[in-house]
């Protein structure tokens, strides 16, 4: 992959557990040669780690997913919104960009983030939503 293809723009929201999950996902991506960037203009793919604990927060997540879907062809959505409303997440993204490749990573699947990103970049919409126990000791951050 070219350098540009390995750039990932990241946004994260929510509680400390959600923030920890995002740090782990970023660490795993970096360990596998991806470059985490703060500027969406230089990224190939976007990753948003969502939270929907409160109504206003859910509305903000909907807004951010729409904005990222307008800007990116490749989008990964993770976090608790994915666990609770996976179909809605995809519907939101596809309403604003019918060509988007959107992949979902549930809170119990964060160790599969590298697979999710690689599949997504290859235009494969593979979701990781199954509930399972993940051991997060000694993973990079």
Tally of DSSP β-strands? 5
The CATH topology corresponds to Rossmann fold
User: Which whole number gives the mean pLDDT?
Assistant: 92
The CATH class, by name, is: Alpha Beta
Main sheet specs:
5 strands, parallel
Strand content: 15-25%
Spatial sequence of strands, sheet with the most strands? 2-1-3-4-5
Helix-residue proportion? 40-55%
Radius of gyration: 14 Å
Which series of helices and strands comes N to C?
EHEEHEHHEH
Question: Which structural class fits the helix and strand makeup?
Answer: alpha/beta
Shape: globular
Report, as a whole number of angstroms, the end-to-end distance.
Answer: 23 Å
Q: What count of structural domains?
A: 1
CATH superfamily: Flavodoxin domain
Assigned CATH architecture:
3-Layer(aba) Sandwich
Overview features:
Rossmann fold, 141 residues, 5 helices, alpha/beta
Characterization of the model:
Helix 2 packs across helix 4. This protein is of the alpha/beta class and 141 residues long. It has one domain: Flavodoxin domain (Rossmann fold, 3-Layer(aba) Sandwich). A five-stranded parallel sheet has the order 2-1-3-4-5, with helices on both faces. 41% of the residues lie in helices and 18% in strands. Helix 1 (16-31) links the parallel strand 1 and strand 2. The two termini are 23 Å apart.
List the helices and strands and how they pair.
Layout: E1 7-12, H1 16-31, E2 35-37, E3 45-50, H2 55-71, E4 74-79, H3 80-84, H4 86-96, E5 101-105, H5 113-121
Parallel strand pairs: 1-2, 1-3, 3-4, 4-5
């Amino acid at each position: 992959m070219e350098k540009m293809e390995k750039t990932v723009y990241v946004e994260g929201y929510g509680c400390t557990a959600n923030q920890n999950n995002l740090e782990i996902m970023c660490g795993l991506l970096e360990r596998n040669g991806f470059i985490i960037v703060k500027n969406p203009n230089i990224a190939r793919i976007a990753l948003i780690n969502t939270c929907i604990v409160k109504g206003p927060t859910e509305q903000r997540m909907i807004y951010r997913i729409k904005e990222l879907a307008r800007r990116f062809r490749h989008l990964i959505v993770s976090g608790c919104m994915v666990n609770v409303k996976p179909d809605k997440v995809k519907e939101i993204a596809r309403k604003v960009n019918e060509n988007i490749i959107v992949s979902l990573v549930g809170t119990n699947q964060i160790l599969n983030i590298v697979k999710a990103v690689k599949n997504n970049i290859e235009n494969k919409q593979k979701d990781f939503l199954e509930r399972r126990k993940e051991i997060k000791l000694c993973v990079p951050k």
